[in-house]
Amino acid sequence: MSPKPYVVVIVDDHELFAEGLELLLTRDWGELFVIGGRTTFVEEAADLATSCDADLAIVDLSMPPLGGVAAIRHIKARHPRTRILALSGTDDVALAQEALRAGADGFLPKTVRPEALAAPLSTIAAGLRVVDATVLDALLGSSRGPSAQVVKALTPPDVKLWGLLSTGMETADIATRMVVSERTAKRMVASLLHKLGVNNRIAAAALAGQSGILDAAAGADPLPH
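Above: the chain's sequence. Below: its structure in token form.
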């Protein structure tokens, strides 16, 4: 016997898009998917998913007034077994990240061809995640180092100190290079760790490596003998 088709609900306030998607899924992939229902209201999303015991939900993130992220949270709270594919008409990476944190199992732009949605839906139903390549690159890039606000707040001495301590330099040598006492050097290191939001030098060094600070430090003049 062939497996039961996945029950899909569509949460989207663009009725033409939702109707077209429903027609496409039932016409071309009726053996894989059956539509449990559609709604144009965020407030109805969780009730819809629960009432038809949905396996999958396709949620548009740009739904006023609460937004699709709220629909994702509601569905996951009421019917956690429903796996969710979030769609967005914008390239807002922050919105994609918010949707994934809210419980979405995948994220794709609405510019994707509707006929190309069957494979991602099947993948999500199998327990895997699907994220658009452009969004994934942006998400990975945003995690490579400290935030721009943190870096901007650092003074030139902070940046120099960060590079020095990240090379494993001892406090005495840091004091010599910074032309301060060892006691002052210790205070400066503690202040820098606080600014970076890390607890120790190892974490600061890892952050420096991600930020390119170590490359700059590598070209620093050696300690005078």
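DSSP finds twelve helices and six strands in the chain.
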